[in-house]
Inverse folding.
């Protein structure tokens, strides 16, 4: 194949507060012809994830910051369109961390082949991918969930939250979720089958609302949001309860640190375990995750939603939409032709 051009999204400015479209730029690069041992991959879907906001700050963290003028990185599912590597055939689907671009050339390192016969390929960015794994590890290993417990989940209709809710139901728990619209609440109760859900934007007292749903208190709180949701959980946690610190999206765009939470003394009085985790430290649990999740999906016991935005040029808006609650389930961008 002769050289081809590929569009990519680069970071233009480090966002201040909520990212703006002007913090990103669409660029075009010319890719060289592939050499022996290489493959050319055309991305079909890419993932936008809240953690990417953290990489837009110039600070030390568990992943290096994105660099100005460089293409962004993130999960992507692509199709091999040319191969000079005997490990990959044209037509194979691969999972990579090279989303945010149309095409890339690779020697194969860091790529995982996925089976499009098992599930729609974009599911490997959600239920069968990083967000599903986050829910599984967070709830079962960090949260040490036990059958019959009471579980509160924030951002419950999102990619991670919707998996947490359903795994907890499969474990025989009483599950209540918080979400930002009536449509999300209806999906959680009617489709995902949890016990109750409420629209936190439609109540002026989230703490009282959580209390109404947990007359017997909360055993496990799965934290995706922070702020008043964490206050509400602390208020209603049972003694010896566990708080799984997965994410705090309400704070990711804060320009100045916000004080709080004010209910920290409950951690002592109620002898709570509050534990953070990063999914990438738990790849040793990939086997059990694929075993359990694959089985639940095949049995129709796990449902998921996707919000699919078309076109790589709209990826920044899809990303920004995460902070406005524009997604039900996993937010995904369709980048190129492929199944689904
Ligand atoms: N620890 C880890 O390894 C790990 C891995 C993956 C994800 N995470 C974290 O898990 C959380 C969920 O991630 P995800 O990929 O599943 O995203 P997601 O829940 O699919 O999307 C983000 C959702 O957060 C909610 N939200 C946004 N701003 C909010 C605010 N100010 N207050 C309350 N809710 C707000 C919105 O839903 P509403 O309409 O309900 O507001 C939005 O749809 C994030 O905090 C993320 O950083 C952690």
């Amino acid at each position: 194949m002769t050289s081809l051009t590929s569009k990519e999204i680069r970071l233009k400015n480090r966002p201040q507060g909520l990212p703006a479209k002007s913090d990103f730029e669409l660029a075009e690069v010319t890719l060289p012809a592939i050499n022996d041992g290489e493959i050319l991959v055309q991305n079909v879907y890419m993932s936008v994830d809240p953690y990417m906001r953290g990489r837009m700050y110039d600070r030390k963290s568990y992943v290096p910051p994105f660099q100005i003028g460089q293409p962004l990185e993130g999960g992507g599912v692509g199709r091999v369109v040319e191969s000079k590597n005997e490990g990959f055939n044209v037509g194979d689907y691969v999972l990579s961390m090279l989303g945010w671009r149309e095409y890339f050339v690779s020697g194969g390192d860091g790529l995982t082949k996925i089976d499009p016969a098992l599930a729609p390929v974009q599911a490997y960015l959600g239920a069968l991918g990083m967000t599903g794994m986050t829910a599984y590890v967070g709830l079962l290993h960090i949260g040490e969930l036990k059958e019959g417990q009471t579980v509160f989940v924030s951002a419950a209709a999102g990619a991670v939250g919707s998996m947490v809710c359903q795994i907890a139901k499969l474990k025989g728990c009483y599950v209540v979720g918080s979400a930002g619209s009536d449509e999300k609440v209806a999906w959680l109760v009617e489709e995902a089958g949890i016990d109750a859900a409420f629209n936190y934007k439609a109540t002026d007292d989230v703490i009282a609302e959580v209390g109404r749903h947990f007359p017997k208190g909360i055993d496990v709180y799965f934290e995706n949001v922070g702020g008043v949701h964490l206050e509400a959980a602390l208020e209603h946690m049972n003694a010896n309860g566990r708080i799984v610190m997965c994410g705090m999206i309400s704070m990711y765009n804060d320009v100045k640190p916000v004080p709080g939470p004010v209910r920290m003394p409950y951690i002592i009085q109620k002898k709570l375990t509050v534990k953070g985790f990063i999914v990438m430290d738990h790849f040793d649990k990939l086997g059990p995750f694929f075993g359990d999740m694959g089985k639940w999906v095949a049995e129709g016991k796990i449902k998921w939603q996707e919000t699919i935005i078309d076109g790589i040029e709209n990826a920044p808006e899809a990303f920004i939409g995460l902070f406005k609650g524009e997604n039900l389930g996993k937010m995904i961008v369709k980048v190129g032709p492929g199944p689904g």
Remarks:
- The mean pLDDT is 96.
- DSSP finds nine helices and 15 strands in the chain.
- The pocket of NAP is lined by residues 49-51, 131, 134, 155, 157-161, 179-181, 184, 224-225, 246-247, 249-250, 277-279, 322-323, 325, 327, 331 (CB under 6 Å).
